[in-house]
Amino acid sequence: MRYISTRGTxxxxxxxxxxxxxxxxxxxxxxxxxxxxxxxxxxxxxAGKSYEEIAFRVMRPFIGDTFDDAQFKQLIAQAYQGxxxxxxxxxxxxxxxxxxxxxFHGPTLAFKDFAMQLIGQMFxxxxxxxxDRVTIVGATSGDTGSAAIxxxxxxxxxxxxxxxxxxxxxxxxxxxxxxxxxxxxxxxxVDGDFDDCQAAVKDMFNxxxxxxxxxxxxxxxxxxxxxLAQVVYYFTSAVALGAPHRQVSFTVPTGxxxxxxxxxxxxxxxxxxxxxxxxxxxNDILHRTLDTGAYVKEGVVPSISPSMDIQVSSNFERALYYxxxxxxxxxxxxxxxxxxxxxxxxxxxxxxxxxxxxxGRASEADTRSQIKASLAESGELLCPxxxxxxxxxxxxxxDTPMITLATAHPAKFPDAVKDASGITADLPDRMAxxxxxxxxxxxxxxxxxxxxxxxxxxIAQ
Length: 461
Ligand SMILES: *Cc1c(COP(=O)(O)O)cnc(C)c1O
Prior knowledge:
Blueprint: E1 3-5, H1 15-21, E2 30-32, H2 40-44, H3 51-59, H4 69-80, E3 91-95, E4 98-102, H5 112-130, E5 134-139, H6 143-152, E6 158-165, H7 171-178, E7 185-190, H8 194-206, H9 208-214, E8 216-217, H10 224-240, E9 248-253, H11 258-268, E10 273-280, H12 285-292, E11 294-296, H13 316-323, H14 328-338, E12 342-344, H15 347-356, E13 358-361, H16 364-378, H17 384-394, E14 402-406, H18 414-421, E15 442-444, H19 448-460
């Protein structure tokens, strides 16, 4: 299987190359040239199997000869052994026909661990084989950074630099990034918002001299390896509720569109998903786009669900690629227009998106009252992102079982959760000392040159 760029002019790569690279050289994102299909009997045979076994069956067709079966199984086992729930992604029931997939039992308490722990293992195995060394630079609205640092800390062939918006992540998120003491970990507080951080990382990838000089690698949600790892829990959840014999729907708290896009891949692989619902907070650019066909950037307004405070939703480009039927020049033209403010999706592609994705938004007040209501109705204490999902999911509830993805643990956002519910969400014991540990972070201006200089200096040490 080869991986091709959404913008059509970068060379096709193997799985290993696409994973180690992240962003394509033409600015596009990598996608498999075909999406493998699993027969209903293959899906039926997943019933009762472990998360790790299902992960192997779902991802195996995508990785080519990057790893042999025995090694791939071993990497999967290592990736998920640090999760503190045997099911890895357990389902709990919220209401008749409404289920929550708890994706927050990994080391940093957010769903990002599912992908990051696995690509940490895959990077390490691939780099050990080649002897190469890479510099990972990532932007985060909070959870990607902590998950990446947790996955890559202490690895010998990797330096990891994480850019986060200064003052705009929760204290737990920040401390997860600043308290690891390994010398290959570098947390950078940028004077800007998440979109600024993400733009700086993209600019570094487009600066080929810098890219080569530091062997730049990307682990943001644009990395195909991450999307692939996230396809798995759509399968485990759906199979637990009776797929392939019964359809299910999913609602996904969405920011960068990586998680919901993984659901689209699962559906294309043959998983009987009825609706895929995009849930946004007050930063509702995706909901507005699906509502109107016009993608128009506005300012980011900080919310109590900060991991979704975004205006440039990178993986939406992958959805556009399929909506345009693989017309890479149409995608490239829209992305060009986006850099000067926005674009309008052409009629046919817009129709295609509307049949693929439903959407809704939750205001700050909706989010708070949902945290309170879910606690009263089911005993489940939701994080604000998951509450956005549950709120939106309810408006699409029908005869098909609805699964809302719970993307983070409430203890990651204790202030907002306490404010809404009156309850203090406790961190798991293994993290209880996070408030006492010393922090290590460098504050850097929102300036490409300053950031690149800092990175070069650090890796030279
Ligand atoms: C990253 C994140 C999201 C958004 O996921 P995308 O894949 O970027 O759409 C939602 N909730 C939480 C808690 C997150 O960390």
